[in-house]
Amino acid sequence: MKKQLKIKPVADSSTEEKIKNAARIIFHKKGYAATRTRDIAEEAGINLALLNYYFRSKEKLFDIIMLESLHDFRQHIIVALNDEKTSLESKIETLVSNYIDLLINQPDIPLFILSEIRNNPQALISKLNQKEIITKSYFIKQFQQAVQEGKIVHINPLHYIMNLIGMIVFPFVGRPILSYVGQLKQDDFNNLMEQRKILIPKWLKAISKVK
Amino acid sequence: MKKQLKIKPVADSSTEEKIKNAARIIFHKKGYAATRTRDIAEEAGINLALLNYYFRSKEKLFDIIMLESLHDFRQHIIVALNDEKTSLESKIETLVSNYIDLLINQPDIPLFILSEIRNNPQALISKLNQKEIITKSYFIKQFQQAVQEGKIVHINPLHYIMNLIGMIVFPFVGRPILSYVGQLKQDDFNNLMEQRKILIPKWLKAISKVK
DNA sequence: GTCTATATACGGATAGAC
DNA sequence: GTCTATCCGTATATAGAC
User: Fold this and answer.
1) Are residues A67 and A52 in the same domain?
2) CB < 8 Å to A158, chain B
3) Pick from B31, B162, B195: CB nearest A31
């Protein structure tokens, strides 16, 4: 059971990878409860029994997918917020841009995580780890510094965080409705998201002046 | 089977209402697939068989709850956006305020709807009805008017809608995480949302000037 | 209308052949 | 490692007594 490289996995080569990739797709799309192991097997093009052979149970397979998804979801925030070399503004820019790139590739991650947390809060919230990752980040230090200097209006930083993450994530969470209302095709939607990479930092800047 | 008044239902009096209220709570909290009819019966304090006696099946009961939830969720937008008497600004103010009030009372509605749409897009999206409710609303007319007059920067109105709805809804969708990160109690959270009633319209105004 | 007991279906998991 | 066949628990739904 060789561990494969994170960056460039050998695609769908091994059966194990095939199952994991299929599981990610189905779990992300339907959530734990609505997913049937038979669907995963079919998506992976393998026999149902193999799923249990490799992963013992639906739950164990799910835990693996959830852990990886949480990792992806968090990592973009943590890394960006804790870079001590960059300014507040450029931190926002990289975070927004990287995040939107992730979501264009895996648009179902946020709704997946949020709805599973709803179904099982205590179990999952703890897996988010250190609640201080945001509140004690270098970003927050810089933020409070900027408030002191009068560059940002005095306000609960949580509002700022909600707006930041919400502006990035919400369009993906509401994509089906949005695409329906706006009659958007896949590409139309992605183009809008590309625009937001530039717009969101500007908007946040404007907001941070509002009393 | 007398139809009861919408505004002031005779609370939990009838068994039918008891079941519906219980179903709303459980479905909102866990979604269709993860909900067991036994849980609903227990929550309602009635025998499991009665559920089928009154509503025939889990699915039929679910459809009723979903339809009502969609109605609540939409109605606040539609009514506010189509009032021809009010200015653009005051439309926003009422919409934000009414919406946040609804969500403080039923905080699980958005995640409920969004995750069920994800599980079954085509079936539910159609129930949203007329895709023109937003794009052909009086609000959009006023919006485009304001753009013409140079009061609002020229931009795809969908960005504006995403920001508007996202700022309102996202904190509720991400509430478990937010409350965890910010160490918020129920009241702390609600207070933040009350603040947003005032702040969101101001923020949107600032955003609408950003090039 | 409400209950107890039970039928039926479905989905996760395993035994055992290859 | 991979398949077929099958087991078994769980959840929905109904039959029938009260």
Assistant:
1) no
2) 178, 181-182, 184, 192
3) B31
- State whether B118 and A176 contact (CB < 8 Å): yes
Residue A1 lies in a domain: no
CA distances (Å), origin B186, targets A26, A160, B175, B189: 34, 20, 10, 5
| R_g over Cα of chain A | 20
- CB–CB of B192/B186 below 8 Å? no
Structural domain boundaries, residue B40:
12-56
Residue A4 lies in a domain: no
How far is the first Cα of chain B from the last one, in angstroms, to the nearest whole number? 58
Spell out residues with C-beta < 7 A from strand C. Answer: A 35-38, 48-49, 52, 56-59; B 15, 46-50, 53
Q: Quick one: A125 and A41 in the same domain?
A: no
Threshold 0.85, pTM exceeds:
yes
Contact (CB, 8 A) for A115 and A124:
no
Instruction: Give how far A7 is from chain B: nearest CA, Å.
Output: 28
What are the two backbone dihedrals, phi and then psi, of residue B119, each rounded to the nearest 5 degrees?
A: -70, -25
Q: B5 in a domain, yes or no? A: no
Residue A34 and residue A67 in one domain: no
Same-domain pairing of A51 and A70: no
> Would you give per-residue pLDDT tens digits along chain A (211 residues)?
333 433 444 556 899 999 999 999 999 999 999 999 999 999 999 999 999 999 999 999 999 999 999 999 888 778 888 899 999 999 999 999 999 999 999 999 999 999 999 999 988 988 877 667 777 889 989 999 999 999 999 999 999 999 999 999 999 999 999 999 899 999 999 999 999 999 999 999 999 999 8
Distance CA A207 to C1' C5 in A: 64
